[in-house]
Design brief:
Layout: H1 15-27, E1 30-31, H2 32-39, H3 43-55, E2 59-63, H4 65-75, E3 80-84, E4 90-96, E5 100-107, E6 112-119, H5 125-143, E7 150-157, E8 160-162, E9 167-171, E10 176-179, H6 181-189, E11 193-197, H7 198-209, E12 218-223, E13 227-233, E14 236-238, H8 268-272, H9 274-285, H10 292-300, H11 304-328, E15 332-336, H12 343-357, E16 366-369, H13 374-391
Parallel strand pairs: 4-7, 7-11, 12-15, 15-16
Antiparallel strand pairs: 1-3, 2-3, 4-5, 5-6, 8-9, 9-10, 12-13, 13-14
């Protein structure tokens, strides 16, 4: 198993160097001229920043065969591309749900090398800690086969998460309050640990490696067991002063709506989450429904109560997305989450409600779906670990 003693600091002496590296990570391979343009740095600053990164193996240079014919006559030498060497370091990402732990091992470019899932029989923090530690140790053993050290571990948890302190303030699906998860897992694994809200972690992955690459302003809205939202404003994932920015799941969409676990009534999550949809079907139909799969099947077969519940949820989600777009003006909203399995049942209502509630040109926002399994959420956790590794002070 990889030894914690093998850890090292990332050789970026300045924030500008770290920014340059993430630029290549997201957009590369790039020529040095293109790196300077995208990062807003001078060519001399780029040369100075990449030197230690190349020397330490985090960046590599290669001839650009496509650009060589065009550039060589003018400059007298072939163009050179700079790329991230994804095999230089490994990372582990873990996504915690109410009944399962999903773990992935990734390279420095956040490409999943292998994934593991283990059931979670007990939500008590000690039991989850033990199961998480065991899974991480298994992945560390697997990492030995790649001959590269594991440089960090990211954990994604739903709810109110204080990333700076590594504390889960409140997680409704785990029923946790003030659990110092980062410190506990670090003690059990010997790895640097980053803990973040699961939707924000997914948003980091989309910003650096997914549908948000190249966008300075976008949002990720997740539907399923809960309703979440990650925000990127001016190129930065926004957590807010209290760490709960983007909680559209607790925006009121029905003033006299059903009670929410947060203590309020009519929250988007109380209307449009999987549990809320099931409750609505039971209430209007007067019959038991065992779970989401049965609810979806009933709706697709024409059950009136089930179809109404999904239509109501779609209307609420569309209004929630419009609220985000009206407030922040993102170029794109990415809808994801396990709830997309039923997207055909409420897609029309989402579109109609969004168009009706979006103000003016906000209605032009690119709203798209992106189904992502929980392995991708664990990948998001790994992305936060990569982010912490790159930006950690030396």
């Amino acid at each position: 198993m990889s030894s914690p003693a093998d850890t090292e600091t990332f050789p970026a002496a300045t924030p500008a160097a770290a920014h340059l590296f993430t630029t290549v990570l997201s957009h590369g391979p790039l020529t040095r001229l293109e790196m300077a343009r995208r990062a807003g740095l001078s060519p001399a600053a780029v040369t100075k920043a990449v030197r230690p990164l190349i020397a330490s193996g985090y960046l590599a240079e290669e001839a650009d065969a496509g650009a060589e014919a065009e550039v060589r006559p003018a400059l007298g030498r072939p163009a050179t591309l700079v790329r991230v060497d994804g095999g230089r370091a490994l990372f582990i990402g873990v996504k915690l749900t109410g009944d399962e732990i999903i773990g992935v091992l990734t390279d420095l470019c956040c490409r999943i090398l292998l994934a593991r899932r283990v059931p979670l029989a007990d939500r008590d923090p000690d039991a989850v800690l033990d199961a998480t530690t065991d899974l991480v140790r298994e992945l560390l053993t697997e990492a030995d086969g790649y001959g590269v050290r594991v440089a960090g571990l990211g954990i994604a948890v739903s709810g109110d998460v204080d990333r700076a302190e590594g504390v889960v303030r409140y997680s409704p699906f785990l029923d946790w309050h003030d659990v110092p998860l980062a410190a506990l897992v670090a003690a059990g694994t010997g790895l640097p640990v980053t803990v973040d809200n699961d939707v924000r972690a997914l948003t980091v992955a989309e910003q650096w490696f997914g549908a948000g690459v190249g966008l300075s302003d976008f949002a990720v809205v997740t539907v399923g067991a809960g309703i979440g939202c990650g925000l990127v404003v001016h190129g930065r994932v926004v957590a807010g002063a209290h760490g709960v920015a983007g909680e559209i799941g607790h925006v009121t969409v029905e003033a006299d709506g059903p009670p929410c676990h947060c203590g309020n009534r009519g929250c988007l999550e109380a209307v449009a989450s999987d549990g809320a949809i099931l409750a609505r079907i039971r209430e209007t139909g007067g019959t038991e429904v065992t779970g989401t799969a049965e609810a979806v099947e009933r709706a697709r077969q024409g059950d009136t109560g089930a179809r109404e519940a999904y239509a109501r949820a779609g209307n609420a989600i569309g209004r929630g997305i419009a609220t985000v777009v009206n407030l922040f003006g993102p170029a794109r909203v990415i809808i994801s989450g396990e709830g997309l399995a039923a997207y055909d049942l409420f897609a029309e209502q989402i579109r109609e409600a969004f168009q009706a509630a979006a103000f003016g040109s906000a209605a032009q926002c690119d709203v798209r779906t992106r189904p992502l399994p929980f392995e991708e959420w664990a990948r998001g956790a790994a992305a936060t670990a990569i982010q912490s590794f790159i930006t950690a002070p030396n």
